[in-house]
Amino acid sequence: MEKKNGKRKIYMVIMRGLMGILFIMSYVLVKGIPNITWDLLSTTPSYIDGSIGILPDILNTIYIIIAALAIVIPLGAGAAVYLTEYAGNKKIVSVIEYAAETLSGIPSIIYGLVGMLFFCQFLNMQTSLLAGALTLVIMNLPTVMRTTQESLKTVPQSYREGAFGLGAGKWRMIRTVVLPGCIDGIITGCILSVGRILGESAALLFTAGVAHALNGFFEGLNSSGATLTVALYFYAKERGEFGVAFAIAAILMVLTLLVNLLAMLVGESFKRRRNT
Amino acid sequence: MKNKKQVFETVIHGIFLILGLITVGSVLLITVYLIISGIPAIREIGLVHFLFGKTWASTAATPSFGILPFILTSVYGTAGAILLGVPIGFLTAVYLAKLAPPKMKKIVSAAVSLLAGIPSVVYGLVGMLVLIPGIRALFHIPDGASLLAAIIVLAIMILPSIINVSITALEAVPKEYEDASLALGATPIETYFRVSVPAAKSGIAAAVVLGVGRAIGEAMAVMMVAGNASNMPSLFQSVRFLTTAVASEMSYSSGLQQQALFSIALVLFLFIMLINAILNFFLKRSKEE
Fold this sequence. Notes:
The complex is a heterodimer of chains A (276) and B (289).
Chain A: H1 2-32, H2 38-42, H3 55-86, H4 90-105, H5 108-122, H6 129-153, H7 157-165, H8 170-181, H9 183-199, H10 202-205, H11 217-221, H12 228-238, H13 242-275
Chain B: H1 2-45, H2 47-52, E1 56-57, E2 64-65, H3 68-99, H4 102-117, H5 120-139, H6 147-171, H7 175-183, H8 188-199, H9 201-217, H10 220-225, H11 242-249, H12 255-288
Antiparallel strand pairs in B: 1-2
């Protein structure tokens, strides 16, 4: 009897939680999707017509993702290679790992502040997408490092010894044996980072700014621009344009869903490949 | 020839070492920048006045910079979110780790990771349009943007961290413990709550501390629902957290006001560092167990 009651109570709590998630999702989608029009997606905001378009924000998001990933992948993967292949000194390893843990615990508003002080002011980049992307690089470094490290651990030690036995130098061994083995981890790290960048707003508010101008890639990197999340905040809080805000929210929800799905599928297929 | 190769290998080693040290450099950069930019305002205002002053009027004719309301709001808000979020997260974790059929587990886990991926501004938006009017109507107060709204939003936002870390801890409990308890005649529910949970207590504590860290560091969602007036914390009043204090004035601040904002960030950073240290303590103990 006690067992049944306990179980039912737990079920109830879980169900309520699930309903909550479903509620948030469906509420956002129901309120957002009717507001997504072709005009919204394909124009820039215009004060003359009083119309709002989010094309610049979409492009800014894509630019910042490309720029951040292009920098964070070599850095994160390189750090992981150092930790698993080179580092002989246990102390350095624990210092680096402790630093990575610390980084993943720092709230994004602090990244935003330091990014503003260091990249925008000290390095004189002004408020620009590049400064935002560099801030995101520091934020996502631990993620890429960890996923790469994990996949490097699955490269069998015998492969490395084999390469050495055939006369390869250390770099050649890493290039031909280790790096191909960490592709899985890098891809997983990319997907996780994209998810995090899509959702990031506090770190970008002061580094990448809130402009809505339509730019090309390189021009865009040097000028201020809002990503989708920042635009959502701006339209909801500063302008009270809830229709547009919900449209962006719905787009973000769908993208988040896709990113999650992709991460799950990729993870499963990697696991299967490793087992065969 | 051999020598050339050795030089080449050393250079490559050096490059990788530098890549590895970038994380350490970033942590140092953040720490040093926050300390350097945070200290001047504290010096000028006075540490006691700054930390325990009850009024924040940064743009007044005779400005006063007391951040006690922000500190207390952050503490109360986080405590509230933990009180609401931990029981739900904990029970969900027990259910998922021990009771759920595999299919159910897969669905709920996917939902949890989706919850973790939803951008914080989306939580803020839903909070603005659902929670705030709801609280206003339910409690008959003029404005629903309040500490309560922030607590509810934070409680939902910290669920995924609490659930995921607790599950990992619960799944690491040796099967023999549970088998022994079941063999002694305890029901599964008794076993899970009196054997598995105590055995995983360090991991679960780590989950709670992680939740504290997430809640205290969240800025955007809170900024959208908490109202942002620098009142002393009270459940139904508009309040300002440490994070939102920085975020809401940064764009137009200058001089001492801006320096004071950096000092607030420094205080927040110290809180986070303390929480990280506690988190590491529990994680380490959980690994040893």
